[in-house]
Write a structure and sequence with these properties.
Layout lengths: L2 H6 L8 H17 L3 E9 L5 H9 L16 E8 L3 E8 L3 H8 L3 H5 L4 E7 L5 H18 L4 E7 L9 H25 L1 H17 L5 H4 L4 H4 L13 E6 L6 H13 L3 H15 L3 E6 L5 E6 L11 H20 L10 E6 L3 E9 L2 E8 L7 E4 L1 H4 L6 H13 L6 E3 L5 H4 L4 E4 L3
Parallel strand pairs: 1-3, 1-4, 4-5, 5-6, 12-14
Antiparallel strand pairs: 2-3, 7-8, 7-11, 9-10, 10-11, 13-14
Length: 436
């Protein structure tokens, strides 16, 4: 329990009905966010396409040059990557040798492709056997659609740094067209098998109903009539969600692709985006980026109308790459492990152009705030919860706090402006308080 919880807890009864309901809703949302989530992520592609290299750069803080010493993945390299504290990525790095691929598609088919949240398929742009690569891809997509129809697919056209800069866009567009055509072929294959799959599911359900250990009321919330209903419409039409990216381990494109992947895996992301927008408007910022602490992938972002005029569309992944490189530099000069927390905050001022600061936001995140030079003061003071707990706030202040809870939930950063508590914090600064 935080100091603020201890301070405000006994006084909930002093609040109005609407405010109390808002507090209860906020606490319920926080409890839901704390639930452990596990997402099965398949990382597949031909051997040597760069799957393990990109995984090591993103999640293990490898430098691009250090990935040269990585060996080939044997069978399946299973790892559990904790992300944002309450999300666990069940990452299956699947070896790409032909023998392993055949095994995934035959003996281990159901085991590998069941309950998949995301498939990341990596194509080596310099592969000399494109037709065989595409044939394997079609088989992989067919198996995925059969066992995990709701899974999202991310196709990475990798090693784009090996293509001449002037030709990269044309080469990528050509490969995208081919991959989309092959994906449609894979979906068509499953559609032809759809009646057989429905019959197979009906047989499995009948076996369950005839089993003496099967409890109808336990497995069906609507009783026996619902449980015994035919499965004619059990397999819906196939609508595959797919995105394609051009990537390289030598630039920021890798962070763009993986940020999009993580963006689809984070639960309650709309809540985060809404609160970032509220925070950005409240402090009159141009842009706010929320980074995961270890990988520095952009989890969420908010941009003002003024910030949308920025011509650099790749600035978000560039910042990920820059901060990750700076973290490696700090590790080199301090002698600390790369996975350690290398810094807590810093501020950068670009003359009369803009000011920005990066600071630890929550236990698992950093926040970057960019402010234009139009602001007369960008100085910030960081106050810990224990400092706030030294003074017992009044009932009227509690009401203001609870109103803010409805806007900015407690797990995020709470903003206290000088017009809210001037008698406590003074009138010359904007004060941020870390969330718990």
């Amino acid at each position: 329990m935080s100091d603020l919880d201890a301070t405000l807890g006994p006084s909930d009864g002093a609040l109005g009905t609407g405010e109390a309901a808002a507090v209860a809703s906020s606490r319920a949302a926080q409890a839901q966010l704390k639930k452990v989530k596990k997402q099965k992520v398949l990382l597949m592609g031909k051997s040597g396409s760069g799957k393990s290299s990109m995984r090591s750069i993103i999640f293990s803080n490898y430098l691009a040059r250090d990935t040269r010493r990585l060996g080939a993945t044997i069978d399946i390299d299973l790892s559990h990557v904790k992300f944002l504290g309450n999300l666990t990525l069940n990452l299956w790095d699947c070896g790409g040798q032909e023998a392993f691929m055949e095994n995934y598609l035959s003996q281990q088919r159901a085991h590998v492709f069941s309950n998949v949240g995301v498939l990341i398929y990596v194509f080596d742009i310099e592969s000399r056997d494109v037709e065989r690569d595409l044939a394997t891809y079609v088989n992989i997509i067919s198996a995925l659609v059969q066992y995990s129809r709701e899974a999202k697919v991310f196709v990475l056209i990798h090693k784009m740094d090996l293509i001449q800069p002037a030709a990269r866009e044309a080469v990528f567009d050509q490969r995208v067209a081919v991959v989309r055509r092959k994906t449609a072929e894979a979906v068509a294959i499953v559609r032809k098998q759809k009646p057989d799959l429905q019959q197979q599911q009906q047989q499995q359900q009948q076996q369950q109903l005839q089993s003496p250990q099967y409890n109808i009321n336990q497995h069906s919330p609507y009783g026996a009539a619902s449980a015994a209903a035919p499965l004619g419409g059990a397999i819906p039409d196939i609508d595959l969600d797919m995105q394609l990216f051009a990537t390289s381990i030598w630039d920021q494109s890798l962070y763009k692709a993986w940020a999009s992947i993580i963006h689809d895996l984070v639960p309650n992301l709309s809540v985060i985006e809404t609160q970032l927008a509220s925070l950005g408007v409240a402090i009159d910022a141009d842009e706010i980026l929320l980074f995961e602490r270890t990988s520095f992938l952009v989890v969420s972002k908010w941009t003002s109308r003024e910030g949308e005029r920025n011509p650099y569309g790749d600035r978000f992944e560039r910042m990920s790459n820059i901060l990750k490189s700076w973290k490696h530099t700090c590790s080199k000069f301090t002698g600390t492990p790369r996975n350690a927390e290398q810094f807590s905050e810093f501020e950068y001022k670009m003359g009369t152009t803009f000011s920005m600061f990066v600071t630890k936001f929550t236990t698992n995140t950093y926040v970057l705030v960019c402010m234009a030079a139009r602001r007369p003061s960008c100085s910030c003071e960081w106050v810990e919860w224990r400092a706030w707990g030294k003074r017992r706030i009044t009932v009227s202040e509690q009401r203001r706090v609870m109103h803010l809870f409805n806007v900015l939930p407690g797990w995020m950063l709470l903003l206290w402006r000088r017009d809210i508590f001037p008698q406590t914090f003074g009138s010359g600064s904007i004060v941020f308080i870390r969330g718990w």
